[in-house]
């Protein structure tokens, strides 16, 4: 009689593959689609890392780089935030503001911002309303809801002119800045 024997390592690998497949198929639920290019950016009212409230309409007349990220204090999110920080003067020179958003709370944002010297608002969407409205709320492992790493570039009239989906945090800030300058040149 020929019996197939599984070693603990093979059995573990098979089980791990089955679990990962299940999460990939059943565990990740994509959020609804966000606003379309050319449409008005959904307004919001959210507190920043210092408890100050911000509304999108407060930034009319400026370019807005509204970037969503999954979680404070994680490597990719830190890279992304620090690159925006390092380019903040170039954004300001271009008449643009940077607004970061995640579903973390104000206290988490405060620690994250202070640790990395972030000179722009990071907004706490702990009720997940804005992430849903922009179509970036994603379910991980079946239960954890976080924002995807997406950025919306909003023009001075409040319209969405670019949507960067699932961005690479490294170099993203420079791409957004380049696009702002190109769009400004087209409007002149």
Task: Provide a descriptive summary of the structure in words.
The chain is an alpha/beta fold and 188 residues long. It has a single domain, classed as Glutaredoxin (3-Layer(aba) Sandwich). The protein is built from six helices and nine strands. It has helices at 8-27, 75-86, 88-93, 106-116, 129-133, 172-187; strands at 45-47, 53-55, 63-68, 96-102, 122-124, 137-140, 144-147, 151-154, 160-164. It has a five-stranded mixed sheet with strand order 5-4-3-8-9. A two-stranded antiparallel sheet has the order 1-2. Strand 6 and strand 7 form a beta hairpin. The chain is globular. Residues 6-31 have low confidence and may be disordered.
Task: Summarize this structure as a short list of keywords or feature phrases.
single chain; alpha/beta; Glutaredoxin; 6 helices; globular
Quick description:
The chain is an alpha/beta fold and 188 residues long.
Shape: globular
Count of domains:
1
Helix-strand pattern: HEEEHHEHEHEEEEH
Overall average pLDDT:
86
CATH class division: Alpha Beta
> How are the strands of the biggest sheet laid out side by side?
5-4-3-8-9
CATH topology: Glutaredoxin
**Parts with pLDDT < 50 across at least 5 consecutive residues:** 6-31
CATH architecture: 3-Layer(aba) Sandwich
């Amino acid at each position: 009689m020929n019996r197939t024997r599984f070693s603990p390592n093979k059995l573990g690998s098979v089980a791990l593959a089955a679990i990962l497949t299940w999460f990939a198929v059943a565990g990740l639920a994509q959020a609804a689609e966000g606003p379309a290019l050319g449409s008005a950016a959904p307004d919001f009212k959210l507190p920043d890392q210092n408890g100050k409230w911000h509304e999108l309409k407060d930034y009319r007349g400026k370019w807005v780089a509204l970037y969503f990220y999954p979680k404070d204090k994680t490597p990719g999110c830190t890279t992304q935030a620090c690159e925006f920080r390092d380019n903040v003067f170039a954004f300001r020179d271009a008449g643009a503001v940077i607004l970061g958003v995640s579903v973390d709370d104000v206290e988490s944002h405060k620690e994250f911002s202070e640790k990395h010297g972030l000179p722009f608002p990071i907004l706490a969407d702990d009720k997940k309303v804005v992430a849903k409205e922009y179509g970036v709320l994603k379910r991980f492992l079946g239960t954890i809801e976080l924002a995807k790493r997406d950025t919306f570039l909003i023009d001075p009239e409040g319209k969405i002119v670019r949507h960067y989906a699932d961005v690479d945090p490294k170099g993203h800030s420079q791409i957004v800045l380049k696009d702002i300058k190109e769009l400004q040149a087209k409007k002149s």
